[in-house]
């Protein structure tokens, strides 16, 4: 709330400046924090999609129905399917970085809108999920960041599609190091046994939609899905903003 108040006061004093190109602009909507040109440069993740990670398939991979990254690692993900509306590059990559690391939690609304639009455009069967599950942060990381970006994105989806968010039942118990500089195998080892379902009775035989901001190698999302399934969930699909 304080952050939002300060943002409002800042807007009274300074003109709107695009977060990406830094040029001044007149926003068409109150939640627009980037200019129309940068917004239109967001690279969408378009079909055909990889049957494993949900990324766009290059022409040479269409026959196998699997992208080169998934084929290279020969990994069977614990989530049943993954989807992302955007490619993790350019404008979206910069916005996610501002969202997570610069305290700009208000970006959750326009970024969540991208996810909601994707659900509608591709008719994801959102009505068949019992709960949304936000990817949890370890308590030390959440204290540092002051919010969980996955929770904010989940709230944007939940409000529009009238689906409940599973709260206080799935936690992160291991304070892992950042995954950025790690190899694929090291990432998998780093997140091993990172999660815990504290109320398994809530998810037994339930279909869950796991929400996060980015899918990179898939190690974290797969470990989270494994934990949820071991606790009794029937299906776990993954929806991230970008991949």
Please characterize this protein's 3D structure.
This protein has helices at 2-13, 36-40, 68-73, 90-101, 108-121, 139-145, 149-161, 184-190, 219-230, and strands spanning 81-83, 131-134, 170-172, 195-197, 207-214, 235-242. It is an alpha/beta fold. The chain has a four-stranded parallel β-sheet with strand order 1-6-5-2, sandwiched between helices. The radius of gyration is 18 Å and the shape is globular. The chain starts with a helix and ends with a strand.
Concise account of the structure shown:
The chain is α/β, with parallel strands linked by helices. It has helices spanning 2-13, 36-40, 68-73, 90-101, 108-121, 139-145, 149-161, 184-190, 219-230; strands at 81-83, 131-134, 170-172, 195-197, 207-214, 235-242. It folds into 2 domains: 1-41, no CATH class; 44-242, Rossmann fold.
């Amino acid at each position: 709330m304080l952050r939002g108040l300060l943002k409002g006061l800042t807007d009274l004093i300074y003109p709107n400046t695009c977060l990406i190109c830094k040029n001044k602009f007149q926003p068409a909507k109150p939640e627009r924090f980037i200019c129309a040109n940068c917004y239109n440069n967001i690279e969408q993740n378009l079909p055909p999609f990889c049957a494993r990670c949900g990324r766009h398939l290059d022409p040479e991979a269409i026959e196998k129905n699997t992208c080169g990254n998934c084929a290279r690692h020969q990994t069977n993900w614990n989530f049943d399917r993954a989807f992302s509306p955007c490619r993790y590059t350019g404008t979206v990559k910069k916005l996610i970085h501002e969202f997570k690391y610069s305290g700009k939690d208000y970006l959750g609304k326009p970024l969540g809108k991208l996810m909601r639009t994707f659900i509608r455009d591709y008719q994801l069967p959102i009505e068949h999920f019992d709960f949304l599950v936000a990817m949890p942060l370890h308590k030390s990381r959440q204290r540092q960041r002051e919010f969980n970006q996955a929770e904010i994105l989940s709230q944007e989806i939940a409000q529009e599609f009238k689906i409940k968010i599973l709260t206080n039942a799935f936690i992160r118990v291991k304070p892992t190091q950042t995954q950025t500089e790690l190899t694929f195998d090291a990432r998998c080892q780093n997140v091993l046994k990172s999660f815990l379902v504290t109320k398994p009775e809530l998810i037994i035989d339930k279909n869950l939609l796991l929400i996060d901001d980015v899918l990179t190698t898939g190690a974290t999302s797969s470990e989270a899905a494994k934990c949820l399934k071991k606790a009794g969930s029937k299906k776990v699909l993954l929806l991230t903003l970008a991949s």
